[in-house]
Amino acid sequence: MRILVTTPTGHIGSRIVDRLLTSGHQLTVLARDPQKLSDAVRSGVTVVQGSLEDPEPLERALAGADAAFFLIPPPAPDTPHWRSWQEATGTTLAAAAARANVARVVFLSSIAAQHDDVGAISGLGAVERILDAALPNVVSIRAGYFMANYFGSLPTIASPGAVFGVFNGTSKMEIVATRDIGDIAAQWLVNGAWTGHHKVGAHGPEALTQDEVVAILGEVLERPVGYVRIPPAALREALLQAGLPPLFASGYEEMMGGLSPHLESGDYLAEPHNANPSGGVTFREFAQQALRPAFEAQAFASA
Fold it and tell me: In angstroms, rounded to a whole number, what is the distance separating the alpha carbons of residues 37 and 277?
């Protein structure tokens, strides 16, 4: 089977490539910057340089593919509108895959993508519909909240000792390691038996409240960690002060602010709960293996 993996240098794409390199399948990767690929990957795959928005390299990468993994990364900072860019990119992907007669597409989406008031998350839902309309066999993986997002909270955990967020502290949310998302995507890519349109979860082994998250962080980091709820507008201002471009600051305000009431009402999941069949990474394991070393390195660098 010939499989295309887009965004192969990201956390999820690189995990898929690692899982499939020794699987006996022929891999093609579409990479904006092939130099970011390891020597082992470059020697074991066909590399096409280009981006998702550019039809010519995309069509070269899709030529002869039996299955493809699509992940739409954030747009360039000067993009006028995040969601419109997502839909335009999704249209390009769908048209190119249809012309190439790709048998199966696996697309990374998000929890709450079925709602139309969650900013760029709703944009992923729109891309789901675009792909389903154009292609006969599509799996949209609706991933939970990335554990890796908590890397961004390490500076405020150091001082003043808190995680700041727009969600309340008591609503549970699926939290997942990107490694597990990659594993679930890889399983669908190599399975040549499924047909039709599917919405599946990549939710991680447990759902946690923000209060539970900071309790685990406090135990793993061996320091008091609190949770402070802030309004979405305050999140936007904090991101701007941290140096994020206005597109991203406003985009995250819209996404997180839109997701929050759906968490509280419990209607953010429309797909069956699913974790990595092999068990998956718990948040405590992620905190021990990834967040604690990063926190200690940050503390050392600032000492």
Answer: 28
Give CA–CA dist 143/175, Å, rounded. 9
CA–CA separation, 34 vs 41, rounded Å?
10
- State the 10-residue block means of pLDDT for the chain, 303 residues long: 96 96 94 93 95 92 97 94 96 97 98 98 98 98 97 95 97 96 96 96 94 98 97 96 95 97 95 78 97 89 57
- pTM (global) more than 0.85: yes
| Cα–Cα distance measured from residue 14 to residue 44, given in angstroms and rounded to the nearest whole number | 13
Token pair, residue 214, equals: 């900071």
For residue 106, give every residue at least 6 positions away whose Cβ sits within 8 Å of its Cβ, in sequence order, or none.
Answer: 67, 68, 69, 70, 138, 139, 141, 185, 188, 189
Q: How far apart are CA 173 and CA 166, in angstroms?
A: 13
